[in-house]
Design brief:
With about 350 residues, the protein is of the alpha+beta class. The protein has 2 domains: about 10-120, Rieske Iron-sulfur Protein (3-layer Sandwich), CATH 2.102.10; about 140-340, Alpha-Beta Complex (Naphthalene 1,2-dioxygenase Alpha Subunit, Chain A, domain 1). About 15% of the residues lie in helices and about 35% in strands. It is built from 4 helices and 19 strands. An 8-stranded antiparallel sheet has the order 12-18-17-16-15-14-13-19. The protein has a 4-stranded antiparallel sheet with strand order 2-3-4-9, with no helix packed on it. Helix 1 crosses helix 4 (about 310-325). The structure holds FE2/S2 (inorganic) cluster and fe (ii) ion. FE2/S2 (inorganic) cluster (FES) binds near residues 53, 55 and 76.
C-alpha cells in the first residue's frame, strides 16, 4: 500500500504537454520512479513504454523512431511498435523460428486530449477503469504553461498547493497579497477528491478579469483545476487553470501549470508570462527551505480548518490505497463542510 509520501497507482498522471513532442521525437521521462519512454510516432500517435530494451537493457529513448512507426533500439536494432510489441529482430536468419511478437516492452496507456498527455500508471497491469480528467472549457487549447521541478515527494507538493494560508508569506507580491482577514469557504466532495465551491476571489490579481467567481477542485492523484467564470462586454467566459504534481522520483516532483482561456481574453497572456514563473518559484523556494528541516525527519502537524484540505488529501489517498489493496469500491471519506481560517 502506498505510504506517506509515496504516489498512488491505478491513476492517470500528466507528465508533459502534447506540444512538447513533435512527430518522430521521443525522450525519457521519470514517472513514479520508473523510466518511461514518452514519444510520438511519425504518424502523430503519442505513446509511452518502459524505457528499457528487454534484450539487454539499453534505454530505447536513445534509439530512433523509424518511418514505419516503430522504435529502434540503438544496440542491436530490435524494433518495437507503440504498444510495446517487438516487430523486428534484425539478427534472425531464415529458419530461426523465434517470433518477435512474443517479446514486448511494458507499454503504458496514454491519452492525448486538451493539449495534454496523460499516462496511466497501473497498480497491477490492469487496463484503466477511469478516463483522464477533461479540462472544463470548450476547445481547450493551452495558452500558457510553466513546469518547475520541486525537490520533494508528491505529498508535500500537493499540500503546498492546496494550503490556503501561505500566500501572505510566500507569495509576498502586491498583486497577490492581501492583509489577512477571516475567510469562510464551502467545500463539497467530488468523486476522487473535493471542491472549494464557487466564490468571489479576494486577491487583487483577479480584478484583471473584472467581477468573477472561482471554484477550485482537487482530485487524485494530484489534479487541481481552478475554474474562473466572469463576463466581458456582455459575453460569459471561463478561464481554467490546471495544476498537477507529477511524481518523478521519491524526492522530486514536477509542478506543471497550464492555463486555458478563450481567444477574447488574449490581453491576459502578458500577465501570466510576467508573473506565472515567479509565482511557482515562490512555492519551489519554500519547498527547498522545507527540505532543510525535513532532513531531520521531524514530527509535523496539520491543524484546524486551515489544514483540513491537507487532512482530506491524506484520507482520500489512504482510502484509494485501501480500495486498490482490497479490490473493494473506493468510497470518498470527504463530507461537505464549511472551513474557516484567517488569510
Ligand atoms: S539491447 Fe536493445 S536490441 Fe539489444
Ligand atoms: Fe503557493
Amino acid at each position: 500500500m502506498a505510504g506517506e509520501g509515496e504516489p498512488l497507482r491505478g491513476l492517470w498522471y500528466m507528465p508533459a504537454l502534447a506540444k512538447s513532442l513533435k512527430p518522430g521525437q521521443m525522450r525519457r521521462e521519470m514517472l513514479l520512479g520508473e523510466p518511461v519512454l514518452l514519444g510520438r510516432m511519425r504518424d502523430g500517435q503519442a505513446f509511452a513504454m518502459r524505457d528499457i530494451c528487454p534484450h539487454r537493457g539499453v534505454p530505447l529513448s536513445a534509439g530512433k523512431i523509424l518511418p514505419e512507426n516503430t522504435v529502434q533500439c540503438p544496440y542491436h536494432g530490435w524494433r518495437f511498435r507503440n504498444d510495446g510489441v517487438c516487430s523486428v529482430i534484425p539478427s534472425l536468419v531464415d529458419g530461426q523460428d523465434l517470433d518477435p511478437a512474443k517479446i514486448r516492452v511494458r507499454s503504458y496507456p496514454l491519452r492525448e486530449q486538451d493539449g495534454l498527455l496523460w499516462v496511466y500508471v497501473p497498480a497491477r497491469n490492469e487496463a484503466p477503469k477511469t478516463d483522464p480528467p477533461r479540462v472544463p472549457i470548450q476547445n481547450a487549447v493551452p495558452r500558457w504553461d510553466e513546469t518547475q521541478l520541486f525537490p520533494c515527494d508528491i505529498d508535500h507538493a500537493v499540500i503546498g498547493l492546496m494550503d490556503p494560508v501561505h500566500a501572505a508569506y510566500v507569495h509576498d507580491h502586491w498583486w497577490w497579497k492581501r492583509t489577512p482577514r477571516p475567510k469562510e469557504k464551502h467545500y463539497a466532495p467530488l468523486p476522487f477528491g473535493f471542491v472549494m465551491t464557487a466564490h468571489k476571489p479576494s486577491k487583487p490579481a483577479y480584478s484583471l478579469l473584472g467581477d468573477v467567481t472561482t471554484e477550485i477542485t482537487f482530485e487524485l492523484p494530484s489534479t487541481r483545476f481552478e475554474i474562473i467564470k466572469g463576463s466581458l462586454f456582455g459575453k460569459a467566459f471561463t478561464v481554467v487553470g490546471l495544476t498537477v504534481c507529477t511524481p518523478r522520483e521519491a524526492q522530486s516532483t514536477s509542478i506543471i501549470q497550464v492555463f486555458y482561456w478563450p481567444g477574447l481574453l488574449f490581453f491576459i497572456r502578458p500577465f501570466f508570462t510576467a508573473l506565472g514563473p515567479t509565482f511557482i518559484a515562490d512555492d519551489r523556494k519554500i519547498v527547498e527551505l522545507q527540505r532543510e528541516g525535513l532532513k531531520f525527519d521531524p514530527h509535523l502537524m496539520l491543524i484546524q480548518d486551515s489544514d483540513q484540505p491537507a487532512i482530506w488529501y491524506h484520507r482520500v489517498k489512504k482510502a484509494w490505497a485501501e480500495s486498490l489493496e482490497s479490490g473493494a469500491d473506493f468510497v470518498n471519506p470527504v463530507q461537505e463542510r464549511t472551513l474557516r481560517w484567517k488569510s
